[in-house]
Amino acid sequence: QPSVAIVGRQNVGKSTLLNRLTGRRQAITEDLPGTTRDRLYIPMNHAGRDFELVDTGGMEPLPQDTIARSVNDQVRSAMKAASVVVFLVDAKAGLTPQDHEIADEVRKSGKPVVLAVNKADNARLSLHAAEFHSLGFGEPMPVSAFHGRGVEDLLDRVVELLPEPEAVAKAAPGLRIAIAGRANVGKSSLLNALVGAERMIVSPIPGTTRDSIDTPIDTASGSVVLIDTAGIRRRGKIERGVEEYSVIRSLNAIDRADIVLIVLDASEPATAQDTHIAGYARDQGRGLILVVNKTDLLENVDMTEYDRNMAARFKFIPYAERLYVSARTGDGVDRVIPTSFEIQSERAKRIPTPDLNSLVRQALARHAPPSAGGKLLKVLYATQVGVCPPEIVFFVNDPKLVHFSFERFLENRLREVFGFAGTPIKFTFKSRG
Ligand code: GDP
């Protein structure tokens, strides 16, 4: 897994840039005052390439160090493992002697470098970027971490410089099932229970991400690769950090999966972290199973009501399957793999265009389509353009007339007739007047 280090003197905006680059995954870079933080690796995917951003945010200089020394130490250690270095400077402050010192270190590293000029918030400041040419790292890229300007271009450039994925570790064939969830819900235990029940074909192989493990297994339903996020609890010292790191790892596993097991702890109420993970899996179009683990801890619980509450908590994914298991006793675990395959076949389903259109006609006859300013929404034609997840395009007279509630109505009708259990469906409305 190639890594990318962002270096630069203090106050050039490294943390802001990091937060901007990592987007939804920014929680991990939150400051943990008073702790000596490990260096963190933030899994990223851009333009189809996986890499890690090295977060050296915790490596603040010690007060007794001279600034020059501590900055240089920081820069050196961050760069050592990196495949690409992003050297960040500050358009507002201009070129400083410290920038020159860091430039020397960057040059010595021999790594490919992207020179980014931050705080180029407007055209005038962007002009200043030219001054940094003299550092000798080619064309400086103006960015504004704060406003998000130039950040996509920066990522494009970084990805170009990443080493070729040398004979990319051949991905094992099979249905890819991610075991996601926050720390201590029982992900590792579930993995063991799943593997224990099946025949492992080969020993686990390192996944494409640090600490992630792909476990290929042969099951009665077919070949499976379990993608899990082991190795999280090593960082047990900083509780908060662990929790967030666990979530980030989950997001990375989700990126590489067909089906996501969102593992929950039956003995605790679902948290915002749980719904965050589920929402991410939905947005990525993965098949969804809520796996409620540790059911052996539930005593005298009305499961019907429990399940109703669970559905309410996850009402943003009403189509997700819900399975109740105990990794400890093995209860219910045998449903996980077959259900995953069932969902995968739903994800891969293609509805013939005539069937889809007759459903849409019927639906519109039952439910007056929305209108605005005397203009009525007309659905001219619908067609499924993709699978895994299913993607349906509706050609309409005016996409602006489509409201969320109408979209939901269509989705419900579609699911009543065609199923699509366990999978998100992607809807697109296109204008054809
Ligand atoms: P992970 O961090 O999500 O991988 O969680 P682990 O698999 O390490 O489990 C966390 C804790 O929950 C451990 O102490 C497990 O023994 C316990 N645990 C896991 N599954 C179950 C279960 O089904 N029932 C009970 N009672 N405890 C469980």
Automatic annotation (TrEMBL):
Residues that coordinate or bind GTP 2: 181-188, 228-232, 293-296
SUPFAM superfamilies from the UniProt entry: P-loop containing nucleoside triphosphate hydrolases
GO biological process: ribosome biogenesis
EngA-type G domain ranges (all copies): 2-166, 175-348
Keywords of the record: GTP-binding, Nucleotide-binding, Repeat, Ribosome biogenesis
CDD domains the record matches: EngA1 (cd01894), EngA2 (cd01895)
Matching InterPro entries: AAA+_ATPase, G_ENGA, GTP-bd, GTPase_Der, KH_dom-like, KH_dom-like_a/b, P-loop_NTPase, Small_GTP-bd
Superkingdom field: Bacteria
KW rRNA processing (keyword) present: no
Job of this protein: GTPase that plays an essential role in the late steps of ribosome biogenesis.
The protein's assembly and partners: Associates with the 50S ribosomal subunit.
Name of the protein in question: GTPase Der
